[in-house]
Amino acid sequence: MLAALAHCGETRLRELAHHLDLDMSVVSRQVAQLELQGAVVRRANPEDRRSSLVSITPSGRAWVDALVRAHTDSVAAATADWTPQELTTLTTLLERLRDGLSRRMHGTEPRDDAPDRSGTHASPAPLP
């Protein structure tokens, strides 16, 4: 949630819930907890008093930055002995996964160049 706020900036709770594909009640409870911890601030939406705007605080951004650094360091250590080809394969597969998840969330059809999943094609070689 903090990463989404760091990326999107100030947003309505409903838009944040939609972005995260979560129920509004879940987002509202989590934002309340993050607010108590000083990671986010919530304010009335001046354009629509029925809704709230939420944004990340400098403290919340510091948490996100620390988590990104820790994650980056962890992935770098775990793949330190991988070949460039293995890293390229991982990147390609993660991009396919991201695209598939995005299509699922947005209800769009697979691309025309998407691989055949009918089971009639040859299986890819296993990763070493």
TrEMBL record:
Compositionally biased region (Basic and acidic residues): 100-119
Residue ranges of domain HTH marR-type in the record: 1-99
GO BP annotations, alphabetical order: response to stress
Molecular function (Gene Ontology), one example: DNA binding
UniProt-annotated stretches for the region Disordered: 100-128
Keywords: DNA-binding, Transcription, Transcription regulation
Listed name of the protein: HTH marR-type domain-containing protein
